[in-house]
């Protein structure tokens, strides 16, 4: 389950209640995304709070953009979170889709490339291995709890990008806009083949989608309002055109069937993305996930 970090009017109590409800529920992971030029909480600051608010679920960043950070400081922050969470951190990394986030922190949009991301990963791995990056007296710590550092996932929807990550990522943290299961499985097959050619084990295959529960019209409008707010860098008329086929809206039974269809193609994990901060929807989805899990 993804935290509602892109919703308006958030406060510490609401975020804490969501985190604890996710931790208490049947979910495997708690996820959240990064934006800079937006009203969402800072990802790394929130990571510290989530480490304290939860005890069981894995904490998954979906995704952090390394080019927006100093790689050594990012490695130090993530290692600290791995310590605070007791080794429950998984780090999703991507290049991001918004130039404005790069400009907001003084980063060059020309570095929005997979090669630049891979270079940052190499530096972070050196930090986590305890290597000295400079002639400092001591290396940059703390050492992460998980040997070699937290598992890394690549956030992408493109086969070329996925192939390029096979040498450093443990798998995929993707997204499906239209919930086309066959198309998602084609991307999974690209990952399976790329990891095999790289001489590695089977990749962790995760995807995500926006959701809203309830009356179909009201739920679809909830998705619409969320997309218009979140996709503010895209002209509104283009977002409106996307709304009918983007994300999922419907009943609990229909959501259960969607989850079963993705499970059937070998999806290891689905990162559900809320379009409301309503705890009632979270609890309803928890019931659906528990039912699907118990059934299969």
TrEMBL record:
GO molecular function, one term: alkanesulfonate monooxygenase activity
Residues covered by the Luciferase-like domain: 15-267
GO terms of biological process kind: alkanesulfonate catabolic process
Gene3D superfamilies, sorted: Luciferase-like domain
Source taxon at top rank: Bacteria
InterPro entries: Luciferase-like_dom (IPR011251), Luciferase-like_sf (IPR036661), SsuD_RutA_monooxygenase (IPR050172)
Name of the protein: Luciferase
Lineage summary: Bacteria, Bacillati, Actinomycetota, Actinomycetes, Mycobacteriales
């Amino acid at each position: 389950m993804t935290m509602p970090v892109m919703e308006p009017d958030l406060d510490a109590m609401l975020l804490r209640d969501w985190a604890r409800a996710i931790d208490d529920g049947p979910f495997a992971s708690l996820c959240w995304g990064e934006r800079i030029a937006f009203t969402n909480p800072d990802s790394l600051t929130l990571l510290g709070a989530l480490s304290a608010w939860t005890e069981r679920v894995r904490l998954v960043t979906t995704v952090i953009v390394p080019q927006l950070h100093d790689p050594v400081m990012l490695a130090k922050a993530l290692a600290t979170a791995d310590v605070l969470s007791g080794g429950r951190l998984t780090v999703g990394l991507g290049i991001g889709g918004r130039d404005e986030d790069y400009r907001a922190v003084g980063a060059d949009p020309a570095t929005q490339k997979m090669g630049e991301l891979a270079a940052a990963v190499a530096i972070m791995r050196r930090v986590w291995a305890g290597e000295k990056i400079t002639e400092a007296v001591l290396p940059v710590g703390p050492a992460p709890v998980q040997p070699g550092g937290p598992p890394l996932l690549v956030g992408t929807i493109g086969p070329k990008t996925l192939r390029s990550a096979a040498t450093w990522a443990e798998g995929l943290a993707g997204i499906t806009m239209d919930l086309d299961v066959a198309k998602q499985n084609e991307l999974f097959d690209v990952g399976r083949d790329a990891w095999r050619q790289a001489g590695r084990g089977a990749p962790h295959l995760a995807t995500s989608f926006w959701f809203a529960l309830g009356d179909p019209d009201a739920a679809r409008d909830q998705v619409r309002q969320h997309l218009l707010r979140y996709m503010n860098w895209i002209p509104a008329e283009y977002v409106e055109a996307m709304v009918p086929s983007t994300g999922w809206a419907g009943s609990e039974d229909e959501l259960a069937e969607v989850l079963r269809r993705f499970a059937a193609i070998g999806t290891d994990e689905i990162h559900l993305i809320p379009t409301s901060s309503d705890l009632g929807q979270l609890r309803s989805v928890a019931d659906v996930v528990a039912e699907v899990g118990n059934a299969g």
